[in-house]
Structure formats: C-alpha cells, structure tokens
Amino acid sequence: MQTGNLPPGVPKTNESLGYRIIEWAQTYIVQPDGDSAGQPWKFTPEQLRFVLWFYALNRDGTWQYSAATLRRAKGWGKTPLLAALAIVEFLGPCRFSHWDAFGLPVGKPVPLPVVQIGATSLDQTEQTMDMVRAMLAESPAEVVYGLDIGKTIVQFKSGKPGSIRPKATAGRTNEGNRPSFCLMDECHHWVSSNGGPEFFQTLKRNIEKTTKAGSRWVSTTNAYNPSEDSVAQIIHESEMVAQGYWLYDCLEGGIDPEGIRIEHLVRQALIEAYGDASWADIDGLTRTILHDRTTPDSTYFRFFFNQIAESSGGWMSKSEWDACLVDDDDPILPGDQIAIGFDGSIRGDSTGLVGARLRDAKVFVIDVWERPENAHDDWEIDVLSVEAAVAEAFRTYRVEWMYCDPPYWQEAIGRWAIEFGDDYVYEFWTNKPTRMVQAVERFRSAVTVGDLKHENDPKLSRHVLNAQAREVPQGILIQKDSPRSKRKIDLAICAVLALEARADAIADGRLKIRRSRVVGF
C-alpha cells in the first residue's frame, strides 16, 4: 500500500517533463546487468510513475516538487533508478525550456551539470557509481556525448565542465559546492554518530543556491529506526513532506507483529512491499522470515516490509544466553588448547581477557579489570596486572591464537607478539565494521544454534546481556546503550574476539597440534 504522498495515477502529458526524459533514457542508457545487460534501459511501471511525478511541472515551468524521497524495501531496485536519474541529470533534457505548439513541455540539458552522489562513506557510493558506469559503458550515450567513464568520476572527454562523482561526509569541506543535482543514498544510515544530519543540511544548502535553475535532490532509504534520529526520519517528519512540497514515494507491506509467523500473511505483505519488483525472491524471503531466528523481527519489518520499526535494542536475550549454559562436569583445565580475546581500556571502560576452548567453543573469563563504584576520577587500569595475567594465561593454557583490540595497547600487544610469537598474537581492530560485523554475526549464530558454551560467569553474562545491537551499512555491531553508560560490554567484545580467534586457529590446523612450550615473562 502506498503510504507516501505520491498522487494516484500519472500526470497528463502536458504536466510533466518526465515523458520526454523517459524516452531519452530508454534511447541512451543500457541495462547494467542480468540477462538483458547491454540492451536499452527500461523502467518498471512503478519507477515510471515516480519519474513522471518527480518531473511534474507547474504552468510557469517550475517544478511541482522541490525534492523527493524514495522509500522502498531492500532489493526493490532503488540503486538502478538512482543511477538512471544521475545520468539523466548529467546528460538528458531535464530542465524546462519552453512549451511546444501542442502545449507540451520541452526540456533542455543542464548547462553545467554537477551531479553528486552523497553517502556517509565513499564505500557506500560504490554500488551506485558502479551502476552508473555499467549503464553508460558501451551505450549510445558514451559515443554521442563523448564520455570519460572513470571508476570514481564520469566526465566529458572534451574537457567540458560537468561530472558525476561521489561525495562523502567531510564536515565543512563540502560547504560552498554548487551541485545541480544531488542523490542522497541510504539515508536511514545517516545518523549523528557519522555526521549524517550535518552532511544532509550542507548538501541541501548547496542545492538551494541554484533552485531557481531547477537544482534538486533525491534521497533513498529503507524504513528507519525511530530511535536513531536519522536523516530518513528528519525528511519523513518534515513539514515539506506533510505540505506536499517534497515528493515522498513509499510502498509498505501490510502486516502486524502477530502475523509475522503466519506464512500467507508474510507472503502477502512481501508482495505488497515489493510491488512490481519481479526479481524479488518472495519465496526465499518468506522462508527466512518464518524460520530464521538470528535476526530481530524489527529488522524484517524495516527492510523487507518497509515499515518503520524501533529495534528491540538488546543484542542477546537472557533465554538465548542461558540456553548455552553448561554445568562443570567438563571444566576448563590447565593445558587445554584455547584461543583468547582481549579488549583493553585505560580508565573509562573495563579491560578483559576471555578464553574459548578449541575443542568445544566453551568461553570463560580469564581475568577482568572493572572500575570500582567508588573509584576516584584519576583511577586507571593496572597495566602491570594485565601484563601478568596475559603471561599467566600463556603459561597455564596452550594458547593457539590471541586477538587483541589495539587502541591504547599497541605497544603491549607488540611485546606480547615478540614474547609469545607473532603467529599467536594478532591485532583485531574492532572499529573496522566489515570484519567486526562478521565476527559478531558468527558469535550470535553460535549462540542461536547451541555451538557455544559457557559456565554462567556473572560478569561475562552481565556484559553480554548489556550489549545493544547497532545497525550499520555492513550489518549488526554491538555497543553500549549510550557512550557514558556504566553498563559495560567489554567482556562481550572479548568473547566475540575469542570465538573468532578459535575459528581461525582451527582453520589453521592448530587443534591437531600437540606441543609443549615454556614461556617466560
């Protein structure tokens, strides 16, 4: 069901420049991928309707809408449409010129087309830029317009001014640009922590300098989490949308939380949310939603049903964690092969060492240093005590792999690598989202399917249950409930690193290794 302000039907031919733009796009752009790659580009009916209304005109030749947002389910086809619009705004007849003898609008190209693809990181713009390049490579437009199609910029071979290029958050360095068109991608990820709202305001201000010349912006988003105050939420709740000045196209699947375990309701809601996106795997998505318990229901509502939903927050439920509890009939013993995860702080957060036994993925706390309740402001972690605990762990157990989060501890980690072997002690930067997302996902999956074990250490359990799920473009990370929160999660981080270290040790064949080693400190 359409829950935006997109008008019903389509505008008349004398009310939109979109008809000529669609004809131009299908003449000069090619399909980027799939079985029809290289053939003339075609919009789906829903994409056609969006384009026609986005380029709708008032009788004086000005735009009916000064900006637009496309909110659709994940995989609906937002990126290809975004790429097509970027090319149209770069080359096509996308500005009103005059009315012809039949009263139909005639378009003209932008004299100085500066098309920006904005995102919170350059990596995030790569998919759209790749799509732009694929639509132009070996297309009629490449030859007719004489294009230089680079990996990060599309421009004219003749040196004529104009380009399509990515733009990422960089504070004041973006101030002063004069784009003729701006695409804002994945705005549900534009949050305060990555400078998203400030970046949005900067891009919007830059566009507003040349609105009389027809400059506008388009944003795309999945349904947002209302607890994150993202740009997607700012736009949706804006009076500009409510008053109809900004176009808002949103198709949602009609389902409530009680229906998410009922197959025919899930399937019908997916069909509604994906509309005419015939490539969507409705059967596969239905199976995932009905049977996969590693993902919160709120994620399904937002990404697949396109409904605004607040994340449940907690990364791990108590029942899930307690299901991995085992008794002490097989305790961790000296000499056991283990992997270690280390997450260190100096004064604010806790510092911990967590082990994971190689043969059964049983995790346990080796040691932890937490700030006492009545500690003075100048309290710091006892570094020597940490150093001694690491040495004792290597003496007590057969440590096969150790992953350490380096901030504040790089010098110490370097010494441990020298002392215990650089093929045993490794850095693992938890602030690298792609790698950390994968580690977090593997840990949670191990808990869900019962591959992980623990002895219900109260501190480890507390830290694991304190952890909150945080959504990033790459997936799910874990974090505290707020930056200054006293509800620490450092042992949860250690446990994730320990399990990851165990997996890499086993992959390296170390579970079969029998060796004795005397280690000094």
Automatic annotation (TrEMBL):
It comes from the Bacteria. This is Terminase. It comes from Streptomyces vulcanius. InterPro entries: P-loop_NTPase (IPR027417).
